[in-house]
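Illustration 12: Pkinase domain-containing protein.
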Amino acid sequence: MGQWRKRQSKKKTQRSTESDRNRTHTLSLSLSLSSRVIAKKEMLKFLKGVVGGSSAGLKDLPYNIGDPYPSAWGSWSHFRGTSKDDGSPVSIFSLSGSNPQDGHLAAGRNGVKRLRTVRHPTILSFLHSTEVETFDGTTTKVTIYMVTEPVMPLSDKIKELGLEGTQRDEYCALGLRQIAKAVSFLNNDCKLVHGNVCLASVVVTPTLDWKLHAFDVLSEFDGNTGSASGPMLQYEWLVGSQYKSLEFAKSDWSSIRKSPPWAIDSWGLGCLIYELFSGNKLGKTEEMRNTASIPKSLLPDYQRLLSSMPSRRLNTSKLLENSEYFQNKMVDTIHFMEILTLKDSVEKDTFFRKLPNLAEQLPRPIVLKKLLPLLASALEFGSAAAPALTALFKMGSWLSAEEFSLKVLPTIVKLFASQDRAMRVRLLQHIDQYGESLSAQVVDEQVYPGVASGFSDTSAFLRELTLKSMLVLAPKLSQRTMSTSLLKYLSKLQVDEEPAIRTNTTILLGNIASYLNEGTRKRVLINAFTVRALRDTFSPARGAGLMAICATSSYYDITEIATRILPNVVVLTIDPDCDVRSKAFQAIDQFLQLVKQYHEKMNAGDPEGAAGSGISSIPGNASLLGWAMSSLTKGKSSEQAQLAAMNSGTPLASKSSIASSESGTPHTTTPPICVSSSTDLADQDQPIPVSPTSTDGWGEIENGVHEEHESDKDGWDDIEPLEEPKPSPALANIQAAQKRPVLQPVSQPKPQATNMLPKSKLKATKNKDDDLWGSIAAPAPKTSSKPLNMKTAGSLDDDDPWAAIAAPPPTTRAKPLSAGRGRGAKPVAPKLGAQRINRTSSSGM
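Figure caption equivalent — predicted structure in token form:
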């Protein structure tokens, strides 16, 4: 009894389990059926709403359909379009039929398939295609959409360009050459027959290239295979009777198979030539007998293309090789650019030197839309030489500002990374043509790193061009870049061996002073102008220093004027150069006027107002600075001769460097354009803290004016040299003038010595302004001293470089000088040099 109950209970459990399984299976089937029904409904919904009209475009097509063009080949419609991803322009072709078996749709599918598989630079580029069925009540409409690169019908483009005469013939020759290449590629290389070459089957790209399309009738050609011309047999009714050759119009397929593969398309090319030059659409075949509009150089080839015998028709490849019509300036220029990589450097250099003048003779639309993109691409990928930049800038000047930023500037920015010295020279020579179009971010992040390499280049000409370019680029640099990089390079250029570079460096500092923040100006300007520029052996450099100080007078407080500027300027009132003396008196008058104003305010009992009032520049400072640059050009030849005499016939500056300074002078006289930056530290009221190891090269700034005097310390010890060239004798003068002796004979009392003690204890505390300008009165030594950036801490106490410049006292001779120029463990080594220095000094006396 108990066992029977167990069996009954087990059977119930099995039946319930099977029932649950059945219910689960039924539920899964119902869910599957419902999902399929939903999917079908979604599909029907998509098919019903897939076409929202040509203006709205296809909902699921990744392109937007725009306005239609007035003409297109056959039954196709041609629309403008844009990509939904990036908005780039495209062309969209559509073909509609009443049912899927429509003959037009079958031919359209053949054309789409052929265009997708056949690729050539002169054949329309395929991007995307789709076929959609739409239901409208009881009827079904099938539409094929084909997306290609952006193009325009040839007939519309010819009207838009409006070319006439020779320019029209040259452009037509360029386009016909491209279509002849496409036909030759199909016939001779692919053994394909287009079947309907005419004006409507040609489209034009934005770069004015002609491209062949309308491949609906395109088919294989093989004379040994009877079924090779299948599509042409099926769709020959799509071709207008006026475009058919005699054998094609008669449907003589046996004759067609025996003819060359180019016979039918050569006839079509003749139809294209007639429509192109007559300006009318071909109505009937007999109209092509009228050759009045055909150019004379093309007429023989035109007649051979339309030969009544298929075997005697001109092959398009022979047309390209032998026709005189394709030999003109435009075709030759574009052809040279297309095969530029095959040319040697001599051919490239000759071509690019002629290109600027040649571009003026070509149609302006062709130059800007076709030649300019080719040139920019060649420069960007390195196949074009540096002379091509001249042509690029000339063509770019014909563009609007917006087009220039889009078509030319990206190429220029990439070229700044080039290591080609000739390329960098061309870029810097024309920087005034495009510098204002560069954004501050592009200049700071992409342009300046490439330009900065020119500061340390071995070529003086390139160093000077780089220096002058900063007048355009510096206003767009960030404060960080100016403080940590630009000023470091300028500090080295201020002791450059070329006097023109040293002079232009001072001029540049005066021009860009307004873009420096307050802390940087206090650290840099006075040291750069007084310690460096006013002590230069090149008189135009001293004159530039005087005018730079006057132009930046608003940045100095009254203490700096009285203790650091006026003492250094007064010495120049007895300068050997008349121009320098005149500028020195002007500067003294200007700064004394400022001191008098301060004195009057103090007497009026307003010390706080006197201390807090800003020192404003006297009107005319900007013109004075510009005049200094102009006067630099005028006096160079005499100054160079004077300098050569002082250095025993050794010139300081090369002729090329001086000439480059003269040519660049008008550019530097233009006032710099201010470009404000939201991140500039100059906008802050307080100067940024300065590191004790500042890298701009003009020393460190202390909190107090008395503390930063430091006996006119210029602070070059904390800089690693960028280059260490062997100094010239004149450069040795400049470097020696900056190594102040530890002890000198005291010729007059120093009342301010106790007030101007520096914080640093590394140098002597005695005033070093006793005999600064001996380098002006005395000739330069024949022996060169070590460069400034090579001096060590030990040499500061052992050397006496001022003895090489200053006139010695009458009672002292070689003995004190040899003692002063001892070099540590080898005191006897400088003996001969000391004697030579004394002889030079005595001869200078």
